[in-house]
Amino acid sequence: MMRRMIISAPIIAVGLLAGNTFASDVGRTTSLPIPRFVSVKSKPANVRVGPGVSYPLKWTFVRRGLPVEIIAEFGNWRRIRDWGGEEGWIVGSLLSGNRTALVAPWSGANPVAIRSDAAENASTVAIVQSKVLVRVVGCDGKWCKVKAKGRRGYIRQTRLWGAYPGEVF
């Protein structure tokens, strides 16, 4: 029995440090949904190996507005994931609740149409390349209303990294 308790203690400690990655669907600190999309508010914005300034830098965001996915919380630190799957910790004050998205970053050179309405047969307002940053005004679960370089229109939700499939906001 004692051996079982000793083995389980490190497992519990790892679970507590990881925050809400395993069982919960709301952040302990913010009570907001986990996971959720936010954007980088400041530049530069350092991403670290762990939740604190004593941890080494992993990378630095040099562009404001990029979407990231919060996957855990630990105090005022947020564990994030970028579109490429890289994970690290960033202080929450460097993030914003403003929603942005990257247009089909996985598709390489395939351009995506911004439509005048939320329909495939709607007229094309603009054509944007993969990885173009757009501001997301809202999504209905299938289409997202976006702003990009002075243009407004709709992009299919499945063509954006920064909104979950079926998410409505």
TrEMBL record:
InterPro entries registered for this protein in UniProt: DUF1058, SH3-like_bac-type
Signal peptide start and end residues: 1-23
Record keywords: Aminoacyl-tRNA synthetase, Ligase, Signal
Residue ranges of the TM segments: none
SMART domains tied to this protein: SH3b (SM00287)
Domain (SH3b): residue spans on this chain: 35-98, 101-164
UniProt GO MF annotations: aminoacyl-tRNA ligase activity
Protein name as it appears in the record: Aspartyl-trna synthetase
Source organism (scientific name): Pseudorhodoplanes sinuspersici
